Amino acid sequence: MIGERILNYKIESRLGEGGVGTVYLAAHTQLGRKVAIKVLNPALVDNQQIRERFRNEATTLSELQHVNIITLYDYLEKEKELFLIMEYAPGQSLDEYIHQITGPIAEQKTCYFFEQILDGFAYAHQKGVVHRDIKPSNIIVTPDSDIKILDFGIAKILKEGKRNLTKTGTQLGTVLYMSPEQVKGQFVDQRTDIYSLGLTLFEMITGKCPYDGSILTEYEVYEKILKEPLPNPASFYPNVSDKIQQVIAKATAKNPQDRYQTCEEFKQALIAQTSTTNISTNTSYSTKTALASPNPTRVTKKMASKSSGIDKLKRKNNLILYSVIIVLSSLTLWLGVSIFSENDQSTQDDGAEVVSENTKSKERDDNPVEVESDFSEDDTKSAEEILLDSLNQKKIRTEGFLKILKTEREKELLKGLLIDGQVEEGSSGQFLGEFVVQVTVANRRDDARFEDLLIGITYFNENDKQIKAREQALEPLDADKSITFRVREDVEAVKFATSLKKVKVIDLEPTEVLDSLNNELKELNERISKVKQNMSEDF
Q1: pLDDT in tens, 355-366
Q2: Which residues, in sequence order, are bridge partners of residue 507?
Q3: Is residue 363 part of a domain?
Q4: Which of 113, 139, 236, 366 has its CB surrounded by the most CB atoms within 10 Å?
Q5: Which is it for strands 82-87 and 129-130: parallel, antiparallel or unpaired?
Q6: Would you state the pLDDT for residue 45?
C-alpha cells in the first residue's frame, strides 16, 4: 500500500503488523501532518465479528481525548477495506525501551512514566472503557519521555445500554499479563486493568516479565496466575525497594477486592510509597527535562557497556563456581562408592540390620536382591517408560486444571439462566384447591445452550411447610430464547417456589484458555498413544 492515498493522506511506510491489521505511517498531502493508519487485514474484512470489533475500536477511541492516549482523527469503511486514521506517536514501545535501551528502569524514572500511564487509564475508566490487553508493547515512550497508550481494539465498553461485542466469559488479552479472572473467563472491570498495570510496573522496575513465555507453556502460565503468588521483584532485580514491592503486590492480588480499586488510588499509593525514597510528589513532575535525554543512544551504549561488564564478571564467577562444584561432586561420588562397597561387604559378613532384627533374615531369604539393591524403581525403567510416566502426570495435571476452569465457566454461564414463576390470577386455592402456575425459563446468554433441563416446583402451606413437589422436564433452551409453561395442581397451597434441579451446560464460545487446554490435552493423548505403540512394537 506504500504510495497509495487514503482520504487526504499518502502512505509512506509500514510501521508494524498485528493479528487483525497492519499499521502504516502516512502524511497529510497538504498539511504535512504525520498519522498512523491502521488497515484491517483484507482476509478478515468479510468476517462480521472482526469488522464489528474494528468498528468498536473506532467508536472507543473517538470518545477518548487524553494527552496520554492516542487520538483517533478519522475512520473510513469501504466494502472491502477498513481504516483507522490515528495520531502518530514517534518513539519506542515500552517493551522495546526496557529490553533494548534501559533494562530495569530506575525507580524515579519509572514513577514518572507510570504516573502518566495511570492518568491515561484513570481517564479511560471514567469513560467506562476497560482496555483488557495492557502490556508494555501497547505503551509508547516518546523522545520527550511522554507516554502514549494504544490499541483499545479489544476494549470492553461498560456503558449502560450498549451491546458489547466481547461478552462476559470471552477470554481476550495477552496470556503473560492476564488477571486471574481473565484466565477463568469471568466478568472483568477496571481492576483487571489494574492487575495488568501491576505486572507492567513489575517489568519496568526489574527489566523482566514475571513469567518467562520462552520456557513456560500457556498451561503453566495459567496455573501460575491462578495458584502461585507473583514472584518477588527483588529476586529478579535486587535494587527494587521494599515499598515498590508492596505497591506491586497489592496491584496484583489474586482477588480483585484486595487490589487498588481505581487508578487514582494506585497513583496515590505509588506517590506515597516513593516520596520517602527515590521521588517526591513535587519532583515527579519537575524532572521531565532530566528524564528526556537529548541523546538516548549515547546513554544506551554506556549502560550496555556497564551491563556487559557485569555479565562477564558474573559468567567468570559462575564458571569458577561450577568447576569447584564438579570437583567436589566427583570426590563425593568416589567416596560414596567406596563407602557403599565397604558397607555392602560388611553387611554380608556380619549380618548388619537393614530394617529390623525380626524382619531382616526373612527379607534376605525371600528377596535378597530387593533388600540389597540401592537403586530406585525409576532406575530400572526404560526411556520410553519414563517418558510415558511424565506424559501421564502432565495429562493428570492438565485434566485437573481444565476441570476447574470448566466448572468456573459453567457457573458464569448459569448466571444467564433465569427462572420466574407466577400464580395465575384466581387460581390460588379458590377452585377446589386448584393451583395454576405459569413458569418462564429464559436463557439470557448468546454464548450458551442449556439441555436436559429439569425444573422443580414446590408448594407450601400457610406455615411454610412443604406439602407437595413436582418436576418438569423441558426441551433444550437455545441462546437468547425462553420457554413458558403452565402447571396445574389440585393442592391447597398458599405459596410456591421454583428451582433448577438439573441442567447440562453447552458452552458455545469456549474461552481461549479452554480451547488451548483442550488442544494440549488432545496432543498429550496422541503422544501417549504413540509412545505406547512404540513400546508395544519394541516388545
Answers
A1: 334 444 334 444
A2: 448
A3: no
A4: 139
A5: unpaired
A6: 73
- Do 92 and 150 meet the contact criterion of CB atoms below 8 Å apart? no
How long, in residues, is the chain? 539
Please confirm, yes or no, whether 133 is among the known catalytic residues. yes
Whether residue 29 is contained in a domain is answered as: yes
The answer for residues whose C-beta is within 8 angstroms of residue 444's C-beta and 6 or more apart is 416, 417, 418, 480
How confident is the model over 101-128, as pLDDT tens digits?
989 999 989 998 999 999 999 999 998 8
Rounded to whole angstroms, the Cα distance separating 321 from 119 reads 48
Number of structural domains (the chain) is: 5
Least Cα distance to 508 among 145, 170, 45 occurs for: 170
pLDDT on residue 297: 33
How many CA atoms, within 13 angstroms, populate the side-chain half-sphere of residue 464? Answer: 0
Secondary structure (3-state) at 166: coil
Distances (CA, A) of 192 to 199, 209, 451: 11, 17, 32
Secondary structure of 449-470 as H, E, C letters? EEEEEEEEEEEECCCCCEEEEE
Both 126 and 253 in one domain: the answer is: yes
137 and 189 belong to one structural domain? yes
Same domain, 497 and 437: yes
pLDDT for 433 equals: 62
pLDDT of residue 520: 82
CATH of the domain at 430: 2.60.40.3230
What range does the domain containing 191 cover?
91-292
Provide the grid cell at 111.
514513577
Cα 336 to Cα 324: distance, rounded to the nearest angstrom: 18
Strand order in the sheet with 434-443: 417-423, 434-443, 482-490
Do 102 and 249 lie in one domain? The reply is: yes
Mean pLDDT calculated for residue range 286-304? 37
- Which pLDDT belongs to residue 539? 62
- 100 in a structural domain: yes
Same domain, 71 and 210: no
Please choose, from the candidates 486, 474, 421, 485, the residue with its C-alpha nearest in 3D space to the C-alpha of residue 449. 474
Contacts of 327 (CB under 8 A, 6+ apart): none
| Higher pLDDT, residue 131 or 45 | 131
Quote the pTM value. 0.57
Q: Give domain status of residue 117, yes or no.
A: yes
- Please tell me which residue in 119, 133, 193, 507 is annotated as part of the active site: 133
Report the C-alpha gap between 340 and 347 in whole angstroms.
Answer: 10
Identify whether residues 400 and 259 lie together within a single domain: no
Q: Are 142 and 43 in contact (CB under 8 A)?
A: no
Same domain, 165 and 219: yes
